[in-house]
Hints:
About 55% of the residues lie in helices and about 5% in strands. It has helices at about 5-15, 35-60, 65-85, 85-95, 95-120, 120-135, 135-155, 160-185, 195, 200-205, 225-230, 235-245, 250-270, 275-280, 290-320, 330-340, 345-350, 355-370, 460-475, 490-495, 495-500, 510-515, 525-535, 540-560, 565-575, 605-625, 630-640, 645-655, 660-670, and strands spanning about 190, 210, 215-220, 375-380, 390-395, 400-410, 420-425, 430, 435, 440. It is globular. Residues about 1-20 have low confidence and may be disordered.
Amino acid sequence: MKSVSLSGLLLVVLAMSSAQAASLPADTGIAWNATAAQIASDCRQQIAHTQKAIDSLDARAGSGSKAQLLLDIERTSADLTDALAGPVFLMQVAPNKDVREASNKCVDEFNAFNVRLGADSAVYTIAQGALRTSPTPVERRLAELYVEAGRRTGAGLGADQRAQVTKLFDHLNLLQTAFQRAIAEDRSRITIDADEARSLPTEFLKTLKASGSGYEVDVNESTVTQFMDNEAVAAARRRFFIAYNNRGGQENVTRLAQAVALRSQIAHRLGFRTWADYQLDAKMAKTPKRVFDLLDKLDAALLPKARSEIAVLAGIKKQDGDPSAFAAWDYGFYEHRLQKTKYDVDAEALRQYFPVDKVISSVFAIYEKLLGVRFDEIKPAMSWAPGVREYSVTDVASGKPLAWFFLDLYPRAGKYDHFATFGIRPGRATAAGFQRPVSAIVGNWPVGAPNRPALLSHEDVITFFHEFGHLMHQSLSQAPFETLFGTNVRQDFVEAPSQMLENWMWQPAILKEVSANVVTGKPLPDALIAKVIAAKHVADGYYYSGQVFYGVYDMRLHSSQTSLDPTKLWFDLKGKLTAIAAVPGTIPEASIGHYMGGYDAGYYGYLWSLVYAQDMFSVFQKAGLEDPVVGMRYRKDILEPGATSEPDVLLHNFLGRDVSYEPFYRYIGINPP
Length: 673
């Protein structure tokens, strides 16, 4: 009989004892089928009702307990967030365009309300008093963040200046939502002829619409990898590349430029030198100098590696008999060729081992074991569109239902055009008990051929594992206030837990768990796994120098004392910081939602948080990747607290020491700068 550790046996017993625990019902309490008229009406009424309640609390600022008043303000604000959970989220996913537009307007109105609340001088005064008098550490933490937010939204300014800042924030929010909608509503496509279609995978071709003797190819996140990796005709790759890097249009470039100018005005009015200074004041990095120091050191180490990688690909292109210069639209095709020739890894053959249902069920099983939870699918799902799947999360040890989540994984017209986790309704403590959170992973996986399951790339699987890490952060947090809940941590830490979990998808035993050939049902063979892992770092220089570029572009855009042309800056920096120059006639910045979706002067956080991610992973490496004891420590020390403590404290609690950079440098394959 196989030996079982005492801790492992205990988990088995607990799992058996709670197996019959009741799952959550399908109804989350959020209305997904609201009409455009209902959304408009509910949005106005809920915001007006909440504003009246806040005004009433403001009137008591001069008397009574500041600590209790702040709790009342937090509860009132959270009530509004919960009431508008559906109306706000539907902007991203609703199949009906009128509903999306109504939701978009509701988002604008909700953002405007939050700007007013943040700049409310009475709330700021109450929070300052609560910071001195709140009786518990978590309530003082709440007050601290309210004070910080008030300082950063102009609540401490005079009435006239405060009104001016509020107006600027309102304008900024309108630009940002318009930018995101332009990407989601983009319908770019190209047409390819029969010769150009010949090299594309048969399963991919079956998903395309016929056009004469060729096909129409939608240009979006769900098609880019399969097309660019497999299209042998350079002219077709070029057409796709240019269309892909013009999504959003010149209107979005204008919106970005206007947003940068508004951000600069806001920063100056709030006493900061630049928007970058303003943003980093509330992050772990604190100053632009610390960010630039890290990015400059990394680029110096990575760029030579990136150039050598491109030189190898350019050599393959010449061997193919094409003497033309290596172009940006060549990268995916020849990197894929290198994987197949030198490393004998065929990405399309690899897809055959990752049918969607196998990946989902296997990822679930890993997270269940690691975090001591159980996922149950709820059928029929109560959701916003056909094909969306709904699940409950239950704690194994207690049998206690914890959360709901949804998976909306395939493209639809007007839907959010990337891959992300949305915290639809946060959890919080209420008089009726702890409110269970609702979250969703929204993605754009390639669709399956008719009557065939969708097949994923290894990169798709990594992305899903990453996003599921965010989902668990949103589902398992136990922070008692919405302001402190789940992923509401410092932005340059928020990616660390999910980045850490990406490492699982490079471990031989785990790759066997998540794979099953779509025909034979057999897992990835050992020999192919070894080849996949051997090729892991083949493009690290190109990839991470690209991440440095995105971060530097963002920081330069938001730390300049003068206005900059977003496209000119893109072209200038791309040629200096990466191995492939920008392509004339493209405006890639028009479709990068991060710069207009909360990561402005924050994109560097992907690299910054990777330092913490790799150090946390080192703990699992020592104990075992599926060790439930370490997994529970991670759940308790990192996921459950949310923003009740600063990330440095959470990290020290989990690591038992200060953070080390060594695992990060090893991971990206460079010597310590």
